[in-house]
Write a structure and sequence with these properties.
By secondary structure, the chain is of the alpha/beta class. It has a single domain, classed as Metallo-dependent phosphatases (Purple Acid Phosphatase, chain A, domain 2, 4-Layer Sandwich), CATH 3.60.21. The protein contains eight helices and 13 strands. The strands form two sheets. A seven-stranded mixed β-sheet has the order 4-5-6-7-8-10-9, covered by helices on one side. Strands 3-2-1-11-12-13 form a six-stranded mixed β-sheet. Strand 6, helix 7 and strand 7 form a beta-alpha-beta unit.
Length: 298
Amino acid sequence: MAVKLCHFSDIHLTAKPMGWSARDVVGKRATGWFNLTALGRGSRFRHAPSVVDVLRRDLATRGYDHLVFSGDATMLGFESEMKLAANALGVGDATLPPCIAVPGNHDVYIGRAEKKRLFEASFASWQQGQRVGDSYYPFAQKVGHVWLIALNSSRANFWPWDASGRVGEPQLARLRELTATLDPGPRIVVSHYPIMMPSRRPEPRYHRLRDWKRVKDVAVECGVSLWLHGHKHGWYVLPTDAELPFATICVGSTTQARRWGYHEYTIDGGKLAALRRVYDLAAGAFVDADRFELELKG
């Protein structure tokens, strides 16, 4: 029986900042706030609240079996932003399909957000699943014959210009242990960071998944068929080749102006048929756009 998924990412909702500290003022959040206001980055997401309203309606009405959120609910990782985003997306709404969610780098913008697990607290009902011991990541959810595996690639970074991620050896060891317990079926990793850019090269050092080579190799060992991610705001698809034994899909930003969109995936056996839906500002609705297909190996 086919499984129908909805994949969205990089919402970047912002709210009145609360909980500033002296360290924030001279650190990353001050830089981030300057980028949003003085440099105008926030204007790219000025329609985000209304776009998310329309997205939530689609999540409830288009017959999805499961939802996939690959991170960056917020701009600067404030608790007020986290609560706003969770409420806007319908986290905890029993009328919506179940969801698997991972944080993006903006959701752990500073160490305090990561340490307090602000994302995990606000998105708790979207983070249920099969785990290894008491460790939070990775975890797996089964949808029909498909396994969705949440792998956290985001981390708090000290330097304002550092937007890199890392999975780390302890989590990779747990990924091996977790996948060894799973029933047969396509294994789809949900993470924030890409393995490769459209050029099939890693991102620049301060924006990339730092341990991407190691992550790729372990994912292959674990029989991963597909890697779903965000982080890059323009969408793209990388089919398998000699250097990338599993396909990857970047859904892009769901709410950034003129790039906004999300994906629908119908997985029948090992075949994935995808539909990209893009936001029409004049109509105030998402409309059908590109289609593509992939064969899921493994």
